[in-house]
Amino acid sequence: MDERIALEPWLPWPVLMGLAALAVAAPLWTYRASGRVEDRRLRHTLVGLRAAALLALLALFTRPIGIAVEETSDRSQLVVLVDRSRSMRTPDAPGGMRRDEAANGLLRAEKPLLDELAKLFAFEVCGFGETLEDGPLRPEAHADATGIGPALEDVWRRKRTGRLAAVVLVTDGIHNKGVAPRDAARPYVQARTPIHAIVVGSSRPTAAMRDLALTDLGAPASVDQGNSFEARATIEATAANGQAIKVTCKFGGQLVGIKHVVAASDRHAEVVSFDVPARTKGVFPLEVEVAPVPGEPTHNNALRTEVSVTSRKLQVLLLEGAMRWEATFLRRALAEDPAISLVVGYAQDPLTQAELARPGVLEGMDVVIVGDVPFAHVPPRLAASLPDLVARREDAAVSGRGLLLTGGSRALSGGGWQRSPIAALLPVVLADAPAFAEGELAAVPTHEGQAHYALQLAKDRAESIALWARMPPLLDAERPARTKPTASVLLRAGEIGLLTTAAYGRGRVGVLASASTWRWSMSDVPDVRRAHRLFWRQLVLWLAGRDDAEQGRMWLSVDPSQGLFLRGDSVAIRLHAVDGRWQPLPTATVALTCEAPGGAGGAPLALAWDEAIGAFVAKLDLERVGEYRFAATAEHGGKPLGEDALVLSVRQRDPIETAHTNARPDELAALAQRTRGRMVELAGAPALLRSLRELATTQPQRFERRRELWDKDWVLFVLALLLGAEWLLRKRAGLS
Predict the structure, then answer these.
(1) Domains in the chain and their CATH numbers?
(2) Which of 118, 195, 326, 327 could bridge across to 123 with cysteines, CB 3.0–4.6 Å?
(3) In the predicted model, is pLDDT for residue 641 greater than 70?
(4) From the DSSP assignment, how many helices (H) and strands (E) are in the chain?
């Protein structure tokens, strides 16, 4: 044993030396200056005792520590880590064995060699999944994740008792949980402890791994009756290069379509889309299935969710020539309303042209708004459909259809609409050539406009008129030649009719002769910005014949907007309640129930009003697999607003461990190289294990034991003894 004393001073040495000199000089000067001690021997003794006490006190600041160093000759350690995660069940080891079976076979075949290593080392074989596992090695892979990094950290922190000679990993190299192996290997690099790897499994999919899987099905939780929605199925094909894959989609038990795709590689992923019509109101199952191939597991070949088909939203088509301010803010105003479904098309875009030219393009549309588009750029089929859209209603119980033309440099007379068949529908006669008025044009409701539904920006008419007076002026307007006798001018700017409306057949038409209502949305006044959104919403509702201010409605939606979820996801169920002006009703009486999978009857859910989105919200964690069924009712002022239902499907979350099971030899090779280890395949494992015998040593291990010498009772006793002796001498000499 080697023992020594070390000093770890609290203060820098120059400071301590200066204080030591002061500790000697101060008592000497004190006693000499006083002149009271004439006996020279007594004076020197008192000075010595005082200086000794001060020096002893100062010595404490050097923090003397006793260090004892011992040497031992314990054996070095060797740890073998065997992967016990579910990816080790993949049957791609030599001979078609599962990876965990191949690893077990290696341990059995090399048992004599492992017994020899156990005599040379402090030897241990441990399993690991998400972390290092204690106890005997389990025979079968079972863990839902692989944490190579956490396992290496646990070995270094918990298993290491002396010199760690090496760590051997028996694994497929998949890591998906916890600290990265590269980061966990840092102390191994510093201590020059190698990490060896025996890779089990193939880095490329084999025939035994062939699998066609549906991993996701995207579809909305609810859709408007009469519309179509997109169902997006994600297919992952493993070890199926060149395989033809048949995908079938059904909605409500009826075949929607069949598509065929071909796997382009051994790891092929593709999204297949189906256009699904929603013709009948109700809740219907959406089912997508992949036809299985021989030898593959079939548990993941189909996915199912529920889609609620509800009463139709208002369908609005906005046709523009190009991006412009008016279209941007109009789109925002309408897109914020969950009761309006807005489709925006650009007439000069080839894709839009093709879409608008198809038969039945206006089927299901309630309102068409034409922006800064010349008539010549409108697809002929669409232009020919507009008169029928406005004039006819197939069912008297269905709301009317509407058409609105807005201003712009290439709109109205500037776009040749005065010479089009649409001119007969309009409430004004357009001039032969455009006549624009520019400058600040204040929009003022006419007497008829003050009472019109579209222009009521507040519940009280006087308040609405006052709000119109605060609206920023418009910057442009086109003068029509004249107003038709059956039309009504609702907004004016001086003598110019800004907004003119009329009935045409069973529908309604309008001309808004300006392209600068966007200025209202740019106002610094919140009420004015809200008025811009309200104006456009109410104008669209009036055009569609839905201007009954007394009739409200309610509906359910979900955030995120989808129908299929994974177990453990969180959702927000929203209950929307609006009045006839589509304004939110925070005072409505609402009720929401939820029937969870396996439940008996619906349990009520607590709803809270969310001012930011203008709806009641209930938050829920989806902890069960199956179907969650929601039902809601709402009323306001004693009048029912309606009822709605929603179904969400929840499936089991696939373990991340089984998502991609190809072995990762490159990552294991990089880890081994970083720590000066080796990476081998199963065939090279015996040679690697034999080479570990060279690492066995009984190299002496040095351990230090430290003890503090200054923090002791006897130090205080010495100080008290020195000061007490000085006091006694001073007392005997009559100096106290």
Answers:
(1) 2-71+706-732 (no CATH), 77-200+662-699 (3.40.50.410), 207-308 (2.60.40.10), 314-543 (3.40.50.880), 553-651 (2.60.40.1930)
(2) 118
(3) yes
(4) 17, 37
